[in-house]
Structure formats: structure tokens, C-alpha cells
From TrEMBL:
Molecular function in Gene Ontology: ATP binding; lysine-tRNA ligase activity; magnesium ion binding; tRNA binding
Name listed for the protein in its UniProt record: Lysine--tRNA ligase
Chain residues that bind Mg(2+) 2: 420
Catalytic activity, as annotated: tRNA(Lys) + L-lysine + ATP = L-lysyl-tRNA(Lys) + AMP + diphosphate
Spans through the membrane: none
């Protein structure tokens, strides 16, 4: 391992010198193990926020005595005998009023030597200043952590946008709004869990390391398992294991967990992301459409949003029924090309090439061309919440065929402002058809489709035991949080998104 030599700034050297002075004075703050608080700062505002200056003055001292802790964010001196300091904890901030005659000459001198970013515990009395600001009149303090590295300037903040994501801990300190996004994320997930639990569905865990690439069309991460001397994949979906549980007799199972796909990074994609997958026996695609609308509305309400929410320059109404659009009909509306008409692959390919579309070498059916048209001409045109259904069989290896038109499957995706949020379908439970679909996927892989799934004979055997009619759905949790918190990038809703290494 190569040792990197660190270059310290002048401020960092000054802070290190201050720390060494504390150590020499037997006051090393890093030896502190606990500070007993009787209030968080949010609790202070809740209890004393309505009290006037006179009411606080009249209150018995023991009723307004507080012990709190937080990080110093602002420090300004008021002459040589007083100072105003702002500290913040997880949910709030408050002003401290510090006086030499209250704290004593030695303690006050040490207090003035503190730095922005230091974490302190204080004891004091609640008061209100002449300007009406709720404050703590400090009696004594304790330095709990010395910040050896300065925070960014309060007004200019983090200048490099990538540093915002690399050093999320600094971003959280500097921008309280960022914390609200992640608190909303947790509420959204808890709300979904609570709702699905109320329906009697069981939350489960399935393997992250899998020996077969399956359940989705995606490139996997590959890891070598030394004990078995075999390559394994980080899962690209939880689908096939969850459906095994339906075969085993569970009539509603779901998992909210990490998925890994070895693909690009942009505002909508991170190589590891969080997905909800749910499988319900004896239900179909239409049931899942209704369930999806309910989940979106409940999650939106849980974080205090109105029914109509902003996203970028758009206003999205989550209260009205979501639009439903057949994929072929959407293509016809946008391009005039009618894929309802029976045609050969050669005919479809010619139409695609006339439209300037690239037909990949592994495309073998008209369904591939239909999907190509949808992605190029329809997807970005969708603004309001829209269930796009009727996906061709060629791109839906795990979906049940539509009874009226077996060229298509009983599958839908939910699109909002050109982005996919949900993928769902009536599950294919015919083991013979599933075997044939896996073979077709294998052939696509041999023809150059590195996202094709692999043959999973154990899953085929599970279907041969018998899986009831089942509806399955996958919801991208990160994109849902982005939508409901009006966040532009997936990096804004992941604590620690993947980043390119610092140069």
C-alpha cells in the first residue's frame, strides 16, 4: 500500500496546534465519551419557542435550565467580554449568548479560542435577546470534538459539485435542506413497507450473490467466490428468487433492497440502486396498476406534499387516475407507423432504417423494432403519469402472453416526464414457455446482446412444481424519491453515490 503524503493548509496547521495545546493541558476532547443532554435543539424550540422575553425571565431557573450539544456554525464577538455563537444538531440550531462574567475568565478565554466546526456541549438558561431571538445564556461548556479541518465558507458553500457527493458529510452540515431529502426518503420507504404489510404481504430477503444472471436485462458485476472456485454475480434483480417463494406457498412477498448493474452513471443511473419488488398470487397486471397509484399517493402524502407536485418545470397531478396507453398506440400517435398491422421482421427493419434507427445484430423479431420506436419517439414525449402496456414478447422474457394478441405480453411500465418508474407484469408461469424464452435469450446473448438473461433450470423446475397466476412489480425507490422531493439527480437522493476517483 502506497503512503500518500498529506499537504495541510495554514488553517489546518493552526487547528492542529490548538489541539496539541489541549492535549498538553490534559484536555484532549477526543477522550470524551458521553455528554448527557436534556433537550435536542428542536425540542428547545418546541418547548420555549412561544415564550416571550418577560415570560422566560419570570420562569424559575430550574425550569429553563438546559443541557444541549451541537456543532459551531457561527461565531461573532461582542466586544471583549461577550460572544454570540450558533450551534446546530441534527434537526435545528440555536444561538448561544456567552459572557465573561458568567463563564469565568479562564473558561471564556478558552471558549473564544474555539473554531467553526467544533462540537461542544453547553449548560445554560433559556432567554430571549433584545432582538427577540431565542437563545441560551451559557453557564459552562465542554469541548467534545475538535474539528481539525475547516468547513467551507458559509456563503460560498461547496464550489465543486462533485465534492458535494464525495464528501456528503460536509454537504449535510452545510445544507439543512439535504437532510430533509433523506428524511423524506426514509418516510417514503417506511410508508411503502407499512402499506404492503397492512395488505398481509411478507417482507423477505433474497441472495445478493447469485450464480445465474437473471430477472432483468442488464449487465452484471462479476465476483469470484473462492470457496466454490466459481464466478458469481451481484444480483441485477430479486425476481426469480421471490417467485420461488410464491411457488413455495407465500401469496404475497416483497423485498426492498440493493440492485447492482454494471452500467453507466448519469442523473438517472447509479450502478447500485434500491428497488422494491413485490409478487402477489392470484392477481394480474390491472391489479398492479391500481396498487401503484395507491403507493405513489400514500408516499407523497407521508412527506407532506400536495396532490399536485412540482418537478423541474412541470406540475404533476398524482391525484387523478394515471393515463393508460398501449405501446403500439403510442408509436402510432407519435410517428404514424402502425405496428398493429401484421408484418415480417424484414418489413419492420426497413421501416426502422427509413426512420434513421439503428437495428442491432441481435434483433430477431418485430417486437425489437417496436421497442426501438417506442424508446426513440414516444418515451420522452410522456409527461403526465402514464402506464404504457402491451410490451412485445421479444423484450419480455418473464411476462405472460396477452390472450387476445400473443405478439404482446401483459406487461406495463409507468413513465412520468420521460422517465421509467415502474416495471410490472402478469408473470409467466408456464414452465415450457419459460424454457423456450430462456433459450431465445441465450441465442440473443450469443448474437451480441450482453444484457440477455441466462438459462435458470432450477427456476424452470420450480415452475414445474406449479406457480399460481401471479402479478409482479418492480418500483425504483431512488427515482420515486427524486420525483417526490423534486431532486434533479439520483445522486441527490443517495447518501453515497458512486463517483469517479479523485484525479
Amino acid at each position: 500500500m502506497t503512503n500518500r503524503k498529506r499537504n495541510f493548509s495554514e488553517q489546518e496547521l493552526v487547528r492542529q496546534e490548538k489541539y496539541q495545546q489541549l492535549v498538553q493541558a490534559s484536555a484532549d476532547p477526543f477522550q470524551e465519551t458521553k455528554f448527557e443532554r436534556n433537550y435536542t435543539l428542536a425540542e428547545l424550540h418546541k418547548k420555549f419557542g412561544e415564550e416571550s422575553k418577560d415570560q422566560l425571565l419570570a420562569m424559575p431557573e430550574k425550569e429553563k435550565f438546559v443541557k444541549v450539544a451541537g456543532r459551531i456554525r457561527l461565531f461573532r464577538e461582542a466586544g471583549k467580554k461577550a460572544a454570540f455563537v450558533n450551534i446546530q444538531d441534527q434537526d435545528s440550531s440555536i444561538q448561544l449568548y456567552c459572557r465573561l462574567d458568567e463563564m469565568g475568565e479562564k473558561a471564556f478565554a478558552h471558549f473564544r479560542n474555539l473554531d467553526l466546526g467544533d462540537i461542544i456541549g453547553v449548560e445554560g438558561i433559556m432567554m430571549r435577546t433584545d432582538h427577540g431571538e431565542l437563545s441560551i445564556r451559557v453557564k459552562q461548556y465542554k469541548l467534545l470534538t475538535k474539528a481539525l479541518r475547516p468547513l467551507p465558507d458559509k456563503h460560498s458553500g461547496i464550489q465543486d459539485i462533485e465534492e458535494k457527493y464525495r464528501r456528503r458529510y460536509v454537504d449535510l452540515i452545510m445544507n439543512p435542506e439535504v437532510k430533509k431529502v433523506f428524511q423524506a426518503r426514509t418516510k417514503i420507504i417506511r410508508t411503502i413497507q407499512g402499506y404492503l404489510d397492512s395488505l398481509g404481504y411478507l417482507e423477505v430477503e433474497t441472495p445478493i450473490l447469485q450464480n445465474i444472471k437473471g430477472g432483468a436485462a442488464a449487465k452484471p458485476f462479476i465476483s469470484h467466490y473462492n470457496a466454490l472456485d466459481s464466478d458469481f454475480y451481484l444480483r441485477i434483480a430479486t425476481e426469480l428468487h421471490l417467485k420461488r417463494l410464491v411457488v413455495g406457498g407465500f401469496e404475497g412477498v416483497y423485498e426492498i433492497g440493493r440492485i447492482f448493474r454494471n452500467e453507466g452513471m448519469d442523473t438517472r443511473h447509479n450502478p447500485e440502486f434500491t428497488s422494491l419488488e413485490l409478487y402477489v398470487a392470484y392477481e394480474d397486471m390491472t391489479f398492479l396498476m391500481n396498487l401503484t397509484e395507491t403507493i405513489f399517493r400514500k408516499a407523497n402524502k407521508a412527506i407532506g406534499n400536495p396532490n399536485v407536485i412540482p418537478y423541474g418545470n412541470y406540475q404533476i397531478d398524482l391525484a387523478k387516475p394515471f393515463r393508460r396507453l398501449h405501446m403500439v398506440e403510442g408509436i402510432k400517435q407519435q410517428t404514424g407507423v402502425d405496428f398493429w398491422k401484421p408484418m415480417t421482421f424484414a418489413e419492420a427493419k426497413k421501416i426502422a432504417e427509413e426512420k434513421g434507427l439503428k437495428v442491432e445484430s441481435h434483433f430477431t423479431g418485430v417486437g425489437h423494432i417496436i421497442n426501438l420506436f417506442f424508446e426513440e419517439f414516444v418515451e420522452k414525449s410522456i409527461i403526465e403519469p402514464t402506464f404504457v402496456y402491451g410490451h412485445p414478447v421479444e423484450i419480455s422474457p418473464l411476462s405472460k402472453l396477452n390472450k387476445e394478441d400473443p405478439r404482446f405480453t401483459d406487461r406495463f411500465e409507468l413513465f412520468i416526464i420521460g422517465r421509467e418508474y415502474v416495471n410490472a407484469f402478469s408473470e409467466l408461469n408456464n414452465p415450457q414457455q419459460q424454457y423456450d424464452r430462456f433459450l431465445e435469450q441465450e441465442n440473443e446473448g450469443k448474437s451480441g446482446n450482453d444484457e440477455a438473461t441466462e438459462m435458470d433450470l432450477d427456476f424452470i423446475e420450480a415452475l414445474e412444481i406449479g406457480m399460481p397466476p401471479t402479478a409482479g412489480i418492480g418500483i425504483g425507490i431512488d427515482r420515486l424519491v427524486m420525483l417526490l422531493t423534486n431532486s434533479e439527480s439520483i445522486k441527490d437522493v443517495l447518501f453515497f453515490p458512486q463517483m469517479r476517483p479523485r484525479s
